[in-house]
Protein backbone atom coordinates (compact mmCIF):
# COMPACT_ATOMS: atom_id res chain seq x y z
CA UNK A 1 0.00 0.00 0.00
CA UNK A 2 1.65 3.31 -1.07
CA UNK A 3 2.58 6.03 1.57
CA UNK A 4 1.08 9.50 0.75
CA UNK A 5 2.04 11.53 3.88
CA UNK A 6 4.71 13.71 2.18
CA UNK A 7 2.23 14.78 -0.49
CA UNK A 8 -0.33 15.81 2.15
CA UNK A 9 2.26 17.86 4.03
CA UNK A 10 3.26 19.58 0.80
CA UNK A 11 -0.32 20.54 0.05
CA UNK A 12 -0.78 21.92 3.59
CA UNK A 13 2.37 24.02 3.28
CA UNK A 14 1.30 25.46 -0.05
CA UNK A 15 -2.10 26.34 1.44
CA UNK A 16 -0.45 28.31 4.30
CA UNK A 17 1.73 30.22 1.86
CA UNK A 18 -1.33 31.08 -0.21
CA UNK A 19 -3.17 32.38 2.86
CA UNK A 20 -0.21 34.57 3.85
CA UNK A 21 -0.04 36.04 0.35
CA UNK A 22 -3.75 36.78 0.39
CA UNK A 23 -3.43 38.45 3.80
CA UNK A 24 -0.61 40.68 2.58
CA UNK A 25 -2.54 41.64 -0.52
CA UNK A 26 -5.62 42.50 1.55
CA UNK A 27 -3.49 44.57 3.92
CA UNK A 28 -1.86 46.46 1.11
CA UNK A 29 -5.20 47.12 -0.54
CA UNK A 30 -6.63 48.21 2.82
CA UNK A 31 -3.71 50.60 3.43
CA UNK A 32 -3.99 51.96 -0.06
CA UNK A 33 -7.69 52.53 0.47
CA UNK A 34 -7.23 54.24 3.96
CA UNK A 35 -8.74 57.72 4.05
CA UNK A 36 -6.54 60.79 4.45
CA UNK A 37 -8.12 61.57 7.84
CA UNK A 38 -7.18 58.10 9.11
CA UNK A 39 -3.56 58.57 8.07
CA UNK A 40 -3.05 61.84 10.04
CA UNK A 41 -2.43 61.49 13.81
CA UNK A 42 -1.79 64.23 16.38
CA UNK A 43 1.31 63.05 18.23
CA UNK A 44 2.07 65.93 20.62
CA UNK A 45 0.63 69.23 21.94
CA UNK A 46 2.65 71.85 23.86
CA UNK A 47 1.34 75.00 25.57
CA UNK A 48 3.99 77.55 26.64
CA UNK A 49 3.81 78.83 29.33
CA UNK A 50 1.99 75.93 30.95
CA UNK A 51 -0.50 78.29 32.60
CA UNK A 52 -1.23 81.75 31.22
CA UNK A 53 -1.96 84.78 33.37
CA UNK A 54 -4.58 87.22 32.18
CA UNK A 55 -3.06 89.39 29.46
CA UNK A 56 -0.21 86.92 28.79
CA UNK A 57 0.89 85.90 25.32
CA UNK A 58 1.86 82.27 24.75
CA UNK A 59 2.17 79.61 22.09
CA UNK A 60 0.30 76.42 21.20
CA UNK A 61 2.30 73.88 19.18
CA UNK A 62 0.65 70.84 17.54
CA UNK A 63 2.70 67.99 16.04
CA UNK A 64 1.15 65.63 13.47
CA UNK A 65 2.38 62.48 11.70
CA UNK A 66 1.35 60.72 8.49
CA UNK A 67 0.99 57.10 9.57
CA UNK A 68 -0.07 55.92 6.10
CA UNK A 69 1.89 54.82 3.03
CA UNK A 70 0.80 57.63 0.73
CA UNK A 71 1.24 61.36 0.93
CA UNK A 72 -1.56 63.57 2.26
CA UNK A 73 -2.15 67.01 0.79
CA UNK A 74 -3.03 69.69 3.38
CA UNK A 75 -4.67 72.91 2.24
CA UNK A 76 -4.45 74.91 5.48
CA UNK A 77 -4.14 74.68 9.26
CA UNK A 78 -5.99 76.83 11.79
CA UNK A 79 -6.55 77.20 15.51
CA UNK A 80 -10.10 78.27 16.30
CA UNK A 81 -10.12 80.55 19.41
CA UNK A 82 -13.02 79.31 21.59
CA UNK A 83 -12.34 82.03 24.21
CA UNK A 84 -8.58 82.46 23.58
CA UNK A 85 -7.43 85.06 21.07
CA UNK A 86 -5.27 83.69 18.24
CA UNK A 87 -2.76 86.26 17.00
CA UNK A 88 -1.34 84.51 13.88
CA UNK A 89 -4.48 82.88 12.45
CA UNK A 90 -3.34 83.36 8.80
CA UNK A 91 0.11 81.79 9.14
CA UNK A 92 -0.85 78.38 7.71
CA UNK A 93 -3.27 79.35 4.93
CA UNK A 94 -1.19 77.19 2.56
CA UNK A 95 0.60 74.08 3.82
CA UNK A 96 1.42 71.40 1.20
CA UNK A 97 1.82 67.63 1.26
CA UNK A 98 3.07 65.55 4.18
CA UNK A 99 4.79 62.35 3.02
CA UNK A 100 4.22 58.89 4.49
CA UNK A 101 5.94 58.48 7.88
CA UNK A 102 6.78 62.20 8.05
CA UNK A 103 5.91 64.68 10.85
CA UNK A 104 4.96 68.34 10.76
CA UNK A 105 4.59 71.06 13.47
CA UNK A 106 2.19 73.99 13.63
CA UNK A 107 2.77 76.81 16.16
CA UNK A 108 0.12 79.41 16.96
CA UNK A 109 0.49 82.54 19.11
CA UNK A 110 -2.37 83.05 21.58
CA UNK A 111 -3.27 85.82 24.02
CA UNK A 112 -5.25 85.38 27.25
CA UNK A 113 -7.63 88.34 26.97
CA UNK A 114 -10.20 86.57 29.10
CA UNK A 115 -11.13 85.59 32.64
CA UNK A 116 -9.45 82.75 34.50
CA UNK A 117 -10.54 79.27 33.47
CA UNK A 118 -9.80 76.38 31.10
CA UNK A 119 -10.42 76.97 27.38
CA UNK A 120 -10.36 74.55 24.45
CA UNK A 121 -9.25 76.15 21.17
CA UNK A 122 -9.62 73.69 18.27
CA UNK A 123 -6.78 72.69 15.96
CA UNK A 124 -8.15 72.21 12.41
CA UNK A 125 -6.51 70.68 9.31
CA UNK A 126 -8.26 71.14 5.97
CA UNK A 127 -7.19 68.27 3.65
CA UNK A 128 -6.98 69.09 -0.05
CA UNK A 129 -8.55 65.93 -1.47
CA UNK A 130 -11.29 65.44 1.08
CA UNK A 131 -12.00 65.51 4.77
CA UNK A 132 -10.42 67.30 7.76
CA UNK A 133 -8.76 66.66 11.10
CA UNK A 134 -9.85 68.33 14.35
CA UNK A 135 -8.23 68.28 17.82
CA UNK A 136 -9.15 70.28 20.97
CA UNK A 137 -6.25 71.79 22.95
CA UNK A 138 -6.79 72.63 26.67
CA UNK A 139 -5.35 76.05 27.64
CA UNK A 140 -5.46 77.19 31.29
CA UNK A 141 -5.69 80.86 32.31
CA UNK A 142 -4.87 81.39 36.00
CA UNK A 143 -3.79 84.81 37.30
CA UNK A 144 -2.53 84.02 40.81
CA UNK A 145 0.66 86.01 41.46
CA UNK A 146 3.70 84.85 43.37
CA UNK A 147 3.59 85.60 47.10
CA UNK A 148 6.04 87.90 48.91
CA UNK A 149 6.08 88.04 52.73
CA UNK A 150 8.28 89.43 55.49
CA UNK A 151 9.93 86.66 57.51
CA UNK A 152 12.05 88.82 59.82
CA UNK A 153 12.19 92.59 60.28
CA UNK A 154 12.76 94.91 63.27
CA UNK A 155 9.88 96.96 64.66
CA UNK A 156 12.07 100.07 64.70
CA UNK A 157 15.26 101.01 62.86
CA UNK A 158 18.08 102.94 64.57
CA UNK A 159 18.85 105.99 62.44
CA UNK A 160 21.72 105.43 59.98
CA UNK A 161 22.39 101.93 61.34
CA UNK A 162 22.19 98.78 59.26
CA UNK A 163 19.51 96.23 60.00
CA UNK A 164 18.41 92.99 58.36
CA UNK A 165 15.11 92.24 56.62
CA UNK A 166 14.40 88.71 55.38
CA UNK A 167 11.71 88.06 52.75
CA UNK A 168 10.02 84.85 51.62
CA UNK A 169 9.15 84.55 47.90
CA UNK A 170 6.86 81.63 47.01
CA UNK A 171 5.17 80.35 43.85
CA UNK A 172 1.59 79.13 44.45
CA UNK A 173 0.91 78.81 40.70
CA UNK A 174 0.35 75.57 38.77
CA UNK A 175 3.24 76.40 36.44
CA UNK A 176 6.81 77.48 37.07
CA UNK A 177 8.09 81.07 36.81
CA UNK A 178 11.61 82.22 35.97
CA UNK A 179 13.96 85.18 36.39
CA UNK A 180 12.70 86.07 39.89
CA UNK A 181 14.51 89.23 41.07
CA UNK A 182 13.87 91.28 44.24
CA UNK A 183 14.81 95.00 44.22
CA UNK A 184 14.50 97.33 47.29
CA UNK A 185 13.67 101.02 46.86
CA UNK A 186 12.58 103.91 49.06
CA UNK A 187 13.38 107.53 49.92
CA UNK A 188 15.99 107.76 52.65
CA UNK A 189 16.82 104.06 52.17
CA UNK A 190 20.17 102.50 51.35
CA UNK A 191 20.76 98.79 50.88
CA UNK A 192 24.01 96.84 50.65
CA UNK A 193 22.34 94.78 47.88
CA UNK A 194 20.92 96.62 44.89
CA UNK A 195 18.94 93.45 44.05
CA UNK A 196 18.76 89.74 44.88
CA UNK A 197 18.35 87.24 42.04
CA UNK A 198 16.46 84.07 42.98
CA UNK A 199 16.10 82.51 39.51
CA UNK A 200 13.35 79.99 38.74
CA UNK A 201 10.58 78.92 41.11
CA UNK A 202 8.81 75.62 40.51
CA UNK A 203 5.16 75.23 41.57
CA UNK A 204 4.85 75.44 45.39
CA UNK A 205 8.55 76.29 45.74
CA UNK A 206 9.77 79.02 48.14
CA UNK A 207 13.06 80.89 48.42
CA UNK A 208 14.28 83.58 50.83
CA UNK A 209 16.01 86.91 50.16
CA UNK A 210 17.96 88.82 52.83
CA UNK A 211 18.72 92.56 52.74
CA UNK A 212 20.90 94.82 54.90
CA UNK A 213 18.95 98.09 55.12
CA UNK A 214 20.10 101.50 56.38
CA UNK A 215 17.39 104.15 56.89
CA UNK A 216 18.07 107.85 57.54
CA UNK A 217 14.46 108.68 58.46
CA UNK A 218 11.00 107.18 58.85
CA UNK A 219 9.79 106.17 55.41
CA UNK A 220 8.41 103.28 53.36
CA UNK A 221 10.57 100.50 51.99
CA UNK A 222 9.25 98.96 48.76
CA UNK A 223 10.32 95.57 47.42
CA UNK A 224 9.66 95.08 43.71
CA UNK A 225 9.67 91.39 42.77
CA UNK A 226 9.90 90.91 39.00
CA UNK A 227 9.47 87.50 37.33
CA UNK A 228 8.59 85.94 33.97
CA UNK A 229 5.74 83.60 33.05
CA UNK A 230 6.98 82.34 29.72
CA UNK A 231 8.09 85.53 27.93
CA UNK A 232 5.69 87.71 29.92
CA UNK A 233 7.12 89.92 32.68
CA UNK A 234 5.16 90.44 35.87
CA UNK A 235 5.72 92.32 39.13
CA UNK A 236 4.67 91.74 42.73
CA UNK A 237 5.14 94.67 45.13
CA UNK A 238 5.51 94.59 48.92
CA UNK A 239 5.67 97.78 51.03
CA UNK A 240 7.20 97.72 54.51
CA UNK A 241 6.89 100.76 56.86
CA UNK A 242 10.20 101.91 58.35
CA UNK A 243 10.03 103.64 61.73
CA UNK A 244 13.11 105.31 63.17
CA UNK A 245 13.56 104.78 66.91
CA UNK A 246 15.66 103.25 69.63
CA UNK A 247 15.86 99.49 69.58
CA UNK A 248 14.80 97.63 72.72
CA UNK A 249 17.12 94.81 71.70
CA UNK A 250 20.23 97.01 71.41
CA UNK A 251 23.06 96.64 73.96
CA UNK A 252 22.20 98.35 77.25
CA UNK A 253 24.88 98.90 79.89
CA UNK A 254 23.84 98.75 83.55
CA UNK A 255 26.36 99.63 86.30
CA UNK A 256 25.87 98.35 89.85
CA UNK A 257 27.74 97.31 93.02
CA UNK A 258 29.73 100.55 92.86
CA UNK A 259 32.21 101.06 95.70
CA UNK A 260 34.39 104.10 96.30
CA UNK A 261 37.66 104.20 98.21
CA UNK A 262 39.93 107.21 98.77
CA UNK A 263 43.52 107.44 99.81
CA UNK A 264 44.68 111.02 100.00
CA UNK A 265 43.77 112.57 96.64
CA UNK A 266 43.55 109.20 94.84
CA UNK A 267 40.08 107.76 94.26
CA UNK A 268 39.33 104.17 93.26
CA UNK A 269 35.96 103.18 91.79
CA UNK A 270 35.04 99.49 91.51
CA UNK A 271 31.85 97.76 90.43
CA UNK A 272 30.15 95.61 87.82
CA UNK A 273 28.93 96.50 84.33
CA UNK A 274 26.17 94.29 82.83
CA UNK A 275 24.80 94.12 79.29
CA UNK A 276 21.04 94.12 79.87
CA UNK A 277 20.24 94.39 76.13
CA UNK A 278 19.38 91.58 73.71
CA UNK A 279 22.37 92.17 71.43
CA UNK A 280 26.09 91.83 72.13
CA UNK A 281 28.17 94.89 73.04
CA UNK A 282 31.69 95.39 71.74
CA UNK A 283 34.74 97.43 72.85
CA UNK A 284 33.23 98.15 76.28
CA UNK A 285 35.33 100.66 78.27
CA UNK A 286 34.84 102.27 81.68
CA UNK A 287 36.45 105.60 82.68
CA UNK A 288 35.52 108.90 84.36
CA UNK A 289 34.47 112.25 82.94
CA UNK A 290 34.89 115.89 84.04
CA UNK A 291 35.42 117.14 86.70
CA UNK A 292 37.34 113.93 87.49
CA UNK A 293 40.72 113.22 85.91
CA UNK A 294 41.71 109.60 85.08
CA UNK A 295 44.99 108.60 86.73
CA UNK A 296 47.27 105.58 86.82
CA UNK A 297 47.18 102.66 87.34
CA UNK A 298 43.66 102.27 85.84
CA UNK A 299 42.68 105.47 83.99
CA UNK A 300 40.54 103.42 81.53
CA UNK A 301 39.30 99.89 82.25
CA UNK A 302 38.82 97.90 79.03
CA UNK A 303 36.16 95.20 79.40
CA UNK A 304 36.02 94.21 75.72
CA UNK A 305 32.99 92.31 74.43
CA UNK A 306 29.93 91.64 76.55
CA UNK A 307 27.28 89.19 75.39
CA UNK A 308 23.64 89.69 76.27
CA UNK A 309 23.10 89.17 80.06
CA UNK A 310 26.86 88.96 80.62
CA UNK A 311 28.75 91.14 83.13
CA UNK A 312 32.29 92.11 84.10
CA UNK A 313 33.94 93.79 87.09
CA UNK A 314 35.91 96.97 86.59
CA UNK A 315 38.32 99.24 88.49
CA UNK A 316 39.02 102.87 87.62
CA UNK A 317 41.43 105.25 89.37
CA UNK A 318 41.16 109.01 89.22
CA UNK A 319 41.44 112.30 91.07
CA UNK A 320 38.68 114.84 91.61
CA UNK A 321 39.81 117.63 93.94
CA UNK A 322 36.89 119.49 95.51
CA UNK A 323 34.24 117.39 93.71
CA UNK A 324 31.34 115.84 95.61
CA UNK A 325 30.47 113.38 92.81
CA UNK A 326 32.12 111.76 89.80
CA UNK A 327 30.57 110.94 86.39
CA UNK A 328 31.38 107.30 85.60
CA UNK A 329 31.43 106.91 81.80
CA UNK A 330 30.69 103.58 80.02
CA UNK A 331 31.44 103.51 76.29
CA UNK A 332 30.61 100.62 73.91
CA UNK A 333 29.79 99.76 70.28
CA UNK A 334 27.06 97.72 68.62
CA UNK A 335 27.61 95.10 65.92
CA UNK A 336 27.63 97.81 63.24
CA UNK A 337 30.44 99.76 64.92
CA UNK A 338 28.24 102.61 66.13
CA UNK A 339 29.53 104.08 69.42
CA UNK A 340 27.28 104.63 72.44
CA UNK A 341 27.96 105.98 75.92
CA UNK A 342 26.15 105.95 79.23
CA UNK A 343 26.96 108.01 82.34
CA UNK A 344 26.39 107.12 85.99
CA UNK A 345 26.92 109.77 88.67
CA UNK A 346 28.77 108.39 91.71
CA UNK A 347 28.64 110.29 95.01
CA UNK A 348 31.96 110.51 96.84
CA UNK A 349 30.11 110.43 100.14
CA UNK A 350 29.64 106.71 99.58
CA UNK A 351 33.36 106.10 100.16
CA UNK A 352 34.00 103.60 103.00
CA UNK A 353 35.00 105.20 106.34
CA UNK A 354 37.92 102.83 106.97
CA UNK A 355 39.23 103.53 103.46
CA UNK A 356 38.97 107.28 103.92
CA UNK A 357 40.85 107.14 107.23
CA UNK A 358 43.72 104.97 106.04
CA UNK A 359 46.69 106.64 104.36
CA UNK A 360 49.48 104.58 102.95
CA UNK A 361 48.50 101.38 104.77
CA UNK A 362 49.87 98.16 103.31
CA UNK A 363 47.99 94.91 102.70
CA UNK A 364 48.93 91.82 104.78
CA UNK A 365 51.22 89.35 103.08
CA UNK A 366 49.37 86.94 100.79
CA UNK A 367 46.40 89.29 100.03
CA UNK A 368 45.97 90.94 96.64
CA UNK A 369 45.27 94.59 95.96
CA UNK A 370 42.71 94.62 93.12
CA UNK A 371 39.41 96.40 93.48
CA UNK A 372 39.34 95.80 97.26
CA UNK A 373 42.86 97.13 97.89
CA UNK A 374 43.43 99.73 100.63
CA UNK A 375 40.46 98.69 102.79
CA UNK A 376 40.85 97.51 106.39
CA UNK A 377 39.06 94.48 107.75
CA UNK A 378 39.68 90.89 108.69
CA UNK A 379 39.79 88.08 106.14
CA UNK A 380 38.85 84.52 107.02
CA UNK A 381 41.79 82.84 108.85
CA UNK A 382 43.71 86.07 108.40
CA UNK A 383 44.93 88.81 110.77
CA UNK A 384 43.57 92.16 111.75
CA UNK A 385 44.83 94.94 109.50
CA UNK A 386 45.61 98.61 110.08
CA UNK A 387 47.92 98.32 113.17
CA UNK A 388 47.23 94.72 114.22
CA UNK A 389 48.88 92.98 111.34
CA UNK A 390 51.54 91.33 113.56
CA UNK A 391 49.14 89.69 116.10
CA UNK A 392 48.43 85.95 115.36
CA UNK A 393 44.76 86.13 116.24
CA UNK A 394 43.75 82.69 114.96
CA UNK A 395 46.55 80.89 116.77
CA UNK A 396 45.69 82.59 120.09
CA UNK A 397 42.02 81.62 119.71
CA UNK A 398 42.94 77.99 119.03
CA UNK A 399 45.17 77.83 122.16
CA UNK A 400 42.41 79.32 124.33
CA UNK A 401 39.78 76.89 123.02
CA UNK A 402 42.14 73.93 123.56
CA UNK A 403 42.87 75.01 127.18
CA UNK A 404 39.16 75.33 127.98
CA UNK A 405 38.53 71.84 126.58
CA UNK A 406 41.31 70.30 128.73
CA UNK A 407 39.99 71.93 131.93
CA UNK A 408 36.46 70.72 131.23
CA UNK A 409 37.66 67.17 130.61
CA UNK A 410 39.65 67.20 133.88
CA UNK A 411 36.64 68.35 135.88
CA UNK A 412 34.42 65.63 134.43
CA UNK A 413 37.00 62.97 135.24
CA UNK A 414 37.60 62.10 131.61
CA UNK A 415 41.36 62.45 131.95
CA UNK A 416 41.52 59.85 134.80
CA UNK A 417 39.50 57.34 132.79
CA UNK A 418 41.74 57.80 129.82
CA UNK A 419 44.85 57.32 131.96
CA UNK A 420 43.42 54.09 133.45
CA UNK A 421 42.76 52.70 129.95
CA UNK A 422 46.34 53.35 128.97
CA UNK A 423 47.57 51.50 132.13
CA UNK A 424 45.45 48.49 131.29
UniProtKB/TrEMBL annotation:
Pfam families: CARDB
Signal peptide: none
InterPro entries in UniProt: CARDB, Ig-like_fold
Domain CARDB intervals: 44-126
Region Disordered, residue ranges: 351-376
Positions with biased composition (Gly residues): 367-376
Protein name as catalogued: CARDB domain-containing protein
Coiled-coil intervals: none
Lineage: Archaea, Methanobacteriati, Methanobacteriota, Stenosarchaea group, Methanomicrobia
PANTHER family membership: S-LAYER DOMAIN-LIKE PROTEIN-RELATED (PTHR35902)
Amino acid sequence: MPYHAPEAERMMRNLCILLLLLSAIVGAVSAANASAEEQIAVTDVTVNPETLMRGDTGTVTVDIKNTGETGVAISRAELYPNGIAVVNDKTYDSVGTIGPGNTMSFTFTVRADTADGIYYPTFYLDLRDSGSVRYSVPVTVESTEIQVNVVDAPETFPANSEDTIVLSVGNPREGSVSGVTVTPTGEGIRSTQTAVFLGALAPDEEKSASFRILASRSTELTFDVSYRNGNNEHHAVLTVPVEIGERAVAPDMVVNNIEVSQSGGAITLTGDVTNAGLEDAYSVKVTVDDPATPTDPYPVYVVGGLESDDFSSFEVTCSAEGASSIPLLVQYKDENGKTFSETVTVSLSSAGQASQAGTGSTMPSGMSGGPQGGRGGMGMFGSFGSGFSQIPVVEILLVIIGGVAVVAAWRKGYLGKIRERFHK
